[in-house]
């Protein structure tokens, strides 16, 4: 990297438009009822401290995808409110909501990259909320944005693929690019929706370790949706168990017993609830 | 209790569910189609009149002309080069300009790239109207408006091409998986930014493929547009037809056939490389 990159540390609050420090996340009596009548979240109240690393555990259909999406406003609650740092997410609309989302990074189970374009352009998506629309339309990035994107790709070891096509990458590489895309936002909070469910076990552990580093080194508040009990125990400090849209467990992750998991799953623990060793 | 325990031992009779009877329905549908088709040819109930006798009375007439066309008069060839080139130029310019117009319109006409129902429907409605007007009507009106020549022909081709390219591309976008949209939205992007950086590159193959298709169509159409004075080889076709030079007409038709096939082969090759 060049000199400016070396002198500019990736600390949050580094420049005016980025989020400052890790933020707490609060859910206050949040209920989500979808138009088809399904109640995905029932009166959930949670308080997540700044800089925590939290696993949200539950089977598919437990409401954990919905819950994580209420935090960045991809899903709006029918009742209740969500606060992320200074942003009252549930009260925001339009440009204010987009600015707030810019401070919250998110990665997905299926990576959600645009496969036909380059890794660089995919990572540039992370700069959307800090970029005027005319610049995006003309494809003219500022030197600063370019620098942020390159450093984000470098931090996940994907810099050498920067000009390659995203669709040509392996699953683990795609998720790394997706992490770089989220880091390019210079967020204060990182959300991850089943980030390793489409990956093989060694890659899954590598991606979980990346998330752990993001929490430890960059000091971001991290919320990660998981359905595997051993990953939750190994990589996170606090665990929230969801079942049928309600919080059924909230406590330390490492000491959660099999009985606790049985309560979350609503059935005995099975072999497929564990990923296995590295 | 695994799946293997539940399977039947080899050799035992399988409990195959009875196969549903579908042939009565197929026969009924076939009979209905035949009945409707027959009904449309009975003038007494408002169907079209098909006078098969007319073929017997006039067939020698047509046979003469076909006979002339099958013995092409190659001496017309030198006169065709210039109008043929004009036709190709019209086709290319029309396809190029329509491609530029079709890119934003396709994104505005597709649901994932334009969630706003009002503007999406407005764009679709206008394009439905554009598509509903026959190309010869455009050409006739435009010749009256801007004068005889290639310009009305090119504008006609642009209108025609935009109509079909936008329809086919926006339908392709509608049916494609657009998970990357969610990532753009989560990063705080607005729809324009998401479309520019992710949806557009994802849609390139569909856009390029349909524009190549419109180029093929343009050569065929611009051969006709000359009939109403909108330039191209159609002008020569009209002239030869007026002089009953069916042998010369045969040459021109063969020439157009060769050009259309050449463009089709070229665009097929290009399309394969787009995948």
TrEMBL record, chain A:
<keyword id="KW-0067">ATP-binding</keyword>
<keyword id="KW-0472">Membrane</keyword>
<dbReference type="Pfam" id="PF00005">
    <property type="entry name" value="ABC_tran"/>
</dbReference>
<feature type="compositionally biased region" description="Basic and acidic residues">
    <location>
        <begin position="1"/>
        <end position="14"/>
    </location>
</feature>
<dbReference type="InterPro" id="IPR027417">
    <property type="entry name" value="P-loop_NTPase"/>
</dbReference>
<keyword id="KW-0547">Nucleotide-binding</keyword>
<dbReference type="InterPro" id="IPR003439">
    <property type="entry name" value="ABC_transporter-like_ATP-bd"/>
</dbReference>
<dbReference type="GO" id="GO:0005524">
    <property type="term" value="F:ATP binding"/>
</dbReference>
<keyword id="KW-0813">Transport</keyword>
<dbReference type="InterPro" id="IPR017871">
    <property type="entry name" value="ABC_transporter-like_CS"/>
</dbReference>
<feature type="region of interest" description="Disordered">
    <location>
        <begin position="1"/>
        <end position="22"/>
    </location>
</feature>
<dbReference type="InterPro" id="IPR003593">
    <property type="entry name" value="AAA+_ATPase"/>
</dbReference>
<keyword id="KW-1003">Cell membrane</keyword>
<protein>
    <submittedName>
        <fullName>Phosphonates import ATP-binding protein PhnC</fullName>
    </submittedName>
</protein>
<dbReference type="InterPro" id="IPR050086">
    <property type="entry name" value="MetN_ABC_transporter-like"/>
</dbReference>
<feature type="domain" description="ABC transporter">
    <location>
        <begin position="25"/>
        <end position="269"/>
    </location>
</feature>
<keyword id="KW-1278">Translocase</keyword>
<dbReference type="InterPro" id="IPR012693">
    <property type="entry name" value="ABC_transpr_PhnC"/>
</dbReference>
From TrEMBL, chain B:
<keyword id="KW-0472">Membrane</keyword>
<dbReference type="InterPro" id="IPR000515">
    <property type="entry name" value="MetI-like"/>
</dbReference>
<protein>
    <submittedName>
        <fullName>ABC transporter permease</fullName>
    </submittedName>
</protein>
<keyword id="KW-1133">Transmembrane helix</keyword>
<feature type="transmembrane region" description="Helical">
    <location>
        <begin position="88"/>
        <end position="110"/>
    </location>
</feature>
<feature type="transmembrane region" description="Helical">
    <location>
        <begin position="26"/>
        <end position="48"/>
    </location>
</feature>
<comment type="similarity">
    <text>Belongs to the binding-protein-dependent transport system permease family.</text>
</comment>
<keyword id="KW-0812">Transmembrane</keyword>
<feature type="transmembrane region" description="Helical">
    <location>
        <begin position="249"/>
        <end position="270"/>
    </location>
</feature>
<dbReference type="InterPro" id="IPR035906">
    <property type="entry name" value="MetI-like_sf"/>
</dbReference>
<keyword id="KW-1003">Cell membrane</keyword>
<dbReference type="InterPro" id="IPR005769">
    <property type="entry name" value="PhnE/PtxC"/>
</dbReference>
<dbReference type="Pfam" id="PF00528">
    <property type="entry name" value="BPD_transp_1"/>
</dbReference>
<feature type="domain" description="ABC transmembrane type-1">
    <location>
        <begin position="84"/>
        <end position="267"/>
    </location>
</feature>
<keyword id="KW-0813">Transport</keyword>
<feature type="transmembrane region" description="Helical">
    <location>
        <begin position="136"/>
        <end position="160"/>
    </location>
</feature>
């Amino acid at each position: 990297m060049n000199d400016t990159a070396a002198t500019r540390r990736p600390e949050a609050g580094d420049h005016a438009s980025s989020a400052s420090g890790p933020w707490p996340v609060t859910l206050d009596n949040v209920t989500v009822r979808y138009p088809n009548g399904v109640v995905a979240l029932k009166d959930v109240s949670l308080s997540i401290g700044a800089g925590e690393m939290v696993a949200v555990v539950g089977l598919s259909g437990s409401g954990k995808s919905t819950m994580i999406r209420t935090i960045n406003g991809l899903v709006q609650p029918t009742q209740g409110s969500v606060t992320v740092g200074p942003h009252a997410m549930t009260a925001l609309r339009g440009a204010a909501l987009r600015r707030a989302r810019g401070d919250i990074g998110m990665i997905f189970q299926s990576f959600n990259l645009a496969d036909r374009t380059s890794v660089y352009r995919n990572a540039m998506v992370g700069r959307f909320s800090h970029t005027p629309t005319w610049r995006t339309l003309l494809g003219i990035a500022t030197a600063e944005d370019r620098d942020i994107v390159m450093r984000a790709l470098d931090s996940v070891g994907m810099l050498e693929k920067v000009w390659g096509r995203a669709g040509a990458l392996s699953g683990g590489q795609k998720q790394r690019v997706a992490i770089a895309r989220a880091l390019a936002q210079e967020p204060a909070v990182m959300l991850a929706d089943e980030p390793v469910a489409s990956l093989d076990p060694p890659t899954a552990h590598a991606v979980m370790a990346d998330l752990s580093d993001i929490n430890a080194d960059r000091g971001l508040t991290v919320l990660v949706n998981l359905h595997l009990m051993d990953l939750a125990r190994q990589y996170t400090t606090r665990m929230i168990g969801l079942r049928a849209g309600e919080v059924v467990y909230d406590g330390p992750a490492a000491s959660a017993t099999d009985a606790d998991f049985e309560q979350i799953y609503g059935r005995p623990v099975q072999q497929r609830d564990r990923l296995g060793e590295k | 209790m695994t799946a293997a325990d539940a399977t039947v031992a080899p050799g035992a009779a399988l409990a195959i569910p009875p196969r549903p009877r579908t042939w009565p329905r197929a026969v009924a549908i076939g009979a209905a189609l035949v009945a409707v088709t027959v009904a449309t040819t009975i003038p007494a109930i408002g169907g079209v009149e098909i006078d098969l006798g007319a073929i017997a009375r006039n067939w020698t007439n047509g046979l003469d002309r076909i006979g002339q066309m099958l013995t092409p008069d190659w001496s017309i060839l030198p006169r065709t080069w210039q109008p043929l080139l004009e036709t190709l130029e019209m086709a290319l310019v029309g396809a190029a300009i329509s491609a530029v117009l079709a890119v934003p319109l396709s994104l505005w006409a597709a649901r994932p790239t334009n969630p706003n129902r009002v503007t999406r429907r407005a764009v679709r409605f206008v394009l439905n109207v554009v598509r509903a007007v026959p190309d010869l009507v455009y050409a006739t009106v435009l010749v009256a408006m801007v004068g005889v020549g290639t310009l009305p022909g090119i504008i006609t081709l642009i209108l025609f091409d935009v109509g079909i390219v936008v329809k086919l591309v926006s339908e392709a976008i509608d049916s494609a998986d657009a998970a990357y949209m969610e990532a753009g939205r989560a990063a705080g992007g607005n729809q324009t930014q998401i479309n520019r950086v992710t949806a557009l590159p994802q849609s390139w193959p569909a856009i390029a493929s349909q524009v190549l298709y419109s180029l093929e169509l343009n050569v065929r159409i611009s051969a006709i547009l000359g009939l109403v004075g909108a330039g191209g080889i159609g002008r020569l076709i009209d002239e030869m037809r007026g002089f009953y030079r069916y042998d010369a007409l045969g040459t021109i038709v063969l020439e157009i056939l060769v050009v259309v096939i050449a463009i089709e082969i070229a665009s097929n090759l290009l399309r394969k490389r787009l995948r």
